[in-house]
Amino acid sequence: MDEADLILAAIEQLGRNVDAKLDGLRTELKGDIAALKADLHRVEADLHRVEADVHRVEAGMNRLEVEVKTENRVANARLDEQRQTINALIPQRIAAVGRGTDAAE
User: Fold this and answer.
1) What is the C-alpha to C-alpha distance for residues 69 and 54, in angstroms, rounded to an integer?
2) Which of 26, 74, 77, 104 has an alpha carbon within 20 to 30 A of 41's alpha carbon?
3) pLDDT for the residue numbered 71
4) Which residues of 67-95 are buried (b: 16+ CB within 10 A; e: fewer)?
5) How far apart are CA 89 and CA 105, in angstroms?
6) What is the pLDDT of residues 29-51, one digit of tens each?
7) 3-class DSSP assignment, residue 65
8) Phi/psi class of residue 100: alpha, beta or left (left: φ > 0; alpha: ψ in -120 to 50)?
9) In angstroms, rounded to a whole number, what is the distance separating the alpha carbons of residues 68 and 62?
């Protein structure tokens, strides 16, 4: 074997080494990609669970909002009745004070 043949053999060996390393990297990358895909599916599943939880919380908040509004209307109605009662008693109290007697008498 002359020097040119040795150089060509070395180049061929270098090519085989590079190919072997590339094959190893391809295999490693395929494994990494598969792991990333699995992680992505888990994250997506978690996201769907979180979205479902958010919808449940929103539904609960909407239900509470309706309850609070209803209770507020009831309280306002009671306060309005009390206001009307007090407003109706004011002239009687004024008249009683004017006469010098207590309206409770």
Assistant:
1) 22
2) 26
3) 97
4) eeeeeeeeeeeeeeeeeeeeeeeeeeeee
5) 14
6) 999 999 999 999 999 999 999 99
7) helix
8) left
9) 10
